[in-house]
Amino acid sequence: MKNTQYLKIAILACAASIVISACNNTPTTTTTETQPSPVASTPPAASNDMAGMKHSGGKKININSAILSELDKLEAKLGIPALSNKIQAERPYKTPEELVSKKVIDQKQYDQIKDLVTIEDIVLTGVEKDADYAIKLGLMKGHLYVAKELLDLNKPKDAEPHIGHPVEEIYTDVADQLNERKVKEFKTKLIALEDLVKAGAKEMPKVTANLKESQQSIDLAIAALPESQRKSPSFVLQVINGLLDTANSEYGAAITDGKIKAAIEYQDSRGFIVYAEQLYQGIAATMAKDSPDAHKIIVENMKQLKTAWPAAMPPASPVKTVEEVGKLVKTIEQSTQKIITVASK
After folding, report:
1. Which of the four pLDDT bands, split at 50, 70 and 90, describes residue 116?
2. Which of 42-56, 161-175, 245-259 is predicted least confidently?
3. C-alpha separations of 87 from 96, 173, 217 in Å
4. 3-state SS, residue 178
5. DSSP string of 86-138?
6. Is 30 helix (H, G, I), strand (E, B) or coil?
7. Angstrom distance (rounded) from CA 36 to CA 342
8. Model pLDDT for residues 279-299, shown as the tens digit of each residue
9. pLDDT at position 41, please?
């Protein structure tokens, strides 16, 4: 996600026990498209090696309405810095091909992502809708986690975008679901927190109190999901996969020519990884008992994955390549598929 063009829009985790999970109903997705979207198989002609990257679930990205973290998947795929903001700045699009005619990308680049983009609204239902809701709130948690770290380092300017994105981008995208689930409005709290940090976070006790209240509000929104879902390993794993997929693309967007050029994307992905791990801790005991082989793979690969983000401020050189991070994420996702599939039947 970006620290630019807010006019354009688009974890300190409370407790590992506020977890998320699956029903016994088969997830359904309704869309106005006639075909599911395959993942483009053509490797990117950019500096980033995205061999390990995937678009989770095969769901197309609506270039007219997608939040920046979704658009960042296209940015990471093509290895074009600030592409998410460029896409956002040229909205609306009458056809996906207008990405080319509006000179956002060229034809060769478009050919690499054409199967990933759409202008059609995608309506989620059932478990997929619940998972999308949980993932969006998880992204908020990740942002606030990193914001807290940066504020603790006395870096309010660095913390500001991570407080801004939940309110300016993600909240809008999940507002309808919050209303449906009768969740008390907390956008006002987020705005108040953002204003305090924009002012330089001079009143730290007040900033700290507002940050805690904002985190608690997100936890209450998560708790609006049925407890059976929040404690079900299959559902939690779906949410974790969504967070890892986003973290993967953000990490790819952060690195150009083998160097971390975008600190914000690096920090975004760090927050998402931290929250994903905390979610897993909430189901770890059940996984160790019921799915020991998958549990071992997830724990080992998550441990390796975390080393890519040694601190809130990025290291001078990446600890892991984009390809290495992508492979670790893919391995974790593959180890969860049997559990998710069985639960959905």
Report:
1. very high
2. 42-56
3. 11, 17, 31
4. helix
5. HHHHT---SSTTHHHHTTSS-HHHHHHHTTTEESS-EEEEHHHHHHHHHHHHH
6. strand
7. 22
8. 999 999 999 999 999 999 999
9. 30
Name residue 336's amino acid: T
Q: Is 53 helix (H, G, I), strand (E, B) or coil?
A: coil
Which residues share a beta bridge with 122? 31
Which pTM was predicted? 0.78
**Structure token pair of residue 216:** 């608690």
Cα 344 vs. chain centroid, distance in angstroms? 23
Q: Backbone phi, then psi, for 177, in 5-degree steps?
A: -70, -35
Label residues 251-278 b or e (16+ Cβ within 10 Å = b).
Answer: bbbbbbeeebebbbbbbbbbbbbbbbbb
Helix (H, G, I), strand (E, B) or coil at 63: coil
Distance separating alpha carbons of residues 279 and 17, to the nearest angstrom: 8
Strands 117-118 and 255-256: unpaired
Calpha distance 267→111 (Å, rounded):
30
The amino acid sitting at 246 is T
What dotted CATH number matches 31-123? Answer: 1.10.150
Burial class of residue 47 in the structure, from the number of CB atoms within 10 Å of its CB (0-12 exposed, 13-18 middle, 19+ buried): middle
DSSP, res 185 = P
SS3 content of the chain, % helix, strand, coil (to 5): 60, 5, 35
Indicate the SS3 state at residue 263: helix
> How far apart (Å, rounded) are the C-alpha atoms in residues 328 and 252?
13
What is the distance between the alpha carbons of residues 225 and 18, in angstroms, rounded to a whole number?
10
55, 156 contact by CB (below 8 A) = no
Contact by Cβ (8 Å): 137, 220: no
